[in-house]
Amino acid sequence: MCAAPAVFYGGKITKLFKLADRLYKLPPYLFARLDELKQAEAAKGADIIDLGVGDPDLSTPAPIINKLKQAAADAVNHKYPSYQGMLCFRQAAARWCNKRFGIQMDAVTEVLSLIGSKEGIAHIPLAYVNQGDVVLTPSPGYPVYSASTILAGGQVVEMPLLAENSFLPDFDTISADILNRAKLMFINYPNNPTSAVADADFFKQAIALAHKYNFIICHDAAYSEMAFDGYRPASIFEYEGAKDVAIEFHSLSKTFNMTGWRIGFAVGNKDIIAGLGKVKTNIDSGIFQAVQYAGIEALDNQQTQVDKAIAVYQERRDVLADGLRALGLCLEKPKATFYIWIQTPSGFDSAGFTTHILQNTGIVTTPGVGFGKYGEGYIRMALTVDVALMCEALDRLKKIL
Length: 401
Ligand SMILES: *Cc1c(COP(=O)(O)O)cnc(C)c1O
Fold this sequence. Notes:
- The chain has helices at residues 21-24, 30-43, 62-72, 87-101, 117-128, 144-151, 176-181, 200-213, 242-245, 270-281, 289-301, 303-326, 350-361, 387-400; strands spanning 49-50, 111-114, 134-139, 155-160, 182-187, 216-220, 246-251, 264-268, 339-343, 363-364, 366-367, 378-382.
- It has 401 residues and is of the alpha/beta class.
- Strands 2-8-7-6-5-3-4 form a 7-stranded mixed beta sheet, with helices on both faces.
- The longest helix is centred in the C-terminal third of the chain and has 24 residues, at 303-326.
- Residues 54, 116-118, 142, 188, 192, 220, 222, 251, 253-254, 259, 264 line the site of pyridoxal-5'-phosphate.
């Protein structure tokens, strides 16, 4: 629940300070609370190693920064950008999708620029969800899927991601009644927080289900480029029938170390793209054009830098995954994403284990339960520190495990 407003008059919350009911329905934003705990430890003088929030520690490649500098100096770019994104950015996105996945997207009708993919994910329920409509969300999952559903007045129905199903939702366990009432289903592979990946069969099943029950699939592909050992994650649009029912969210954030730049895009069914675009037109005014030019440079020319970053993360993955296993912790070595999903040892729940680690080692990790109730029993570590610091973290953990 949301914290109570700070100001009371005669024990009563005044009308002025009373938040809208919808805000009280939101769970606390996990990363905000995590930050408070971390600040408290840092204030006590702890030497913090942050394996918590998934924000790349590597920097944005220089050619992308240079493109921004150039474009920022040009007065043409100081005006309001177009709502749906500059055509040249949308064309670059379509080109990239074609090069990467072999799929065809029309830059005019099937691509929409986003102020980071989170923005699109947060807004799509406003376009499609009425009061009480069902939205299927993965649990554990990226918290924005359920938060945006709640803000739109929808009903969240969690799809458990269980180890026994390789962290894929089991569609057979969702009742026909729920499926009939569903407007949207969020899926996300490669997956945050479990680091699971999906195969062709899974995407085909999801598409068939969406056709049968008439709902929209929202595929969050934020980690499509972050994969190891030569594995190449798929776009849902590689499978037949997807364009009738799906929208896919892409992000430049993790791929090009651009989390602070706020740029991403959606591709997919033109009516769904138009629905999301209608919400956005009434709320935001697009992305600074200079950032869009930087985005074009990233999508067109920076694959070599992406490959280098992947090699860095892959080495870290090996060090951390092997190190944690040697300490007796139970985990799968991830094929993709920059997260490791670790079972909590007996005697701890997920919040208890992260607190134990933080207070005894200064290492910040994320409790699985913060991603939904089916995340209980796990914690997440992010591969966002260098190997030396990771070894230091392993040394500290050795003393408490
Ligand atoms: C980081 C992340 C995003 C958001 O990325 P932005 O493009 O920076 O908004 C979306 N989905 C998942 C699962 C993420 O982990």
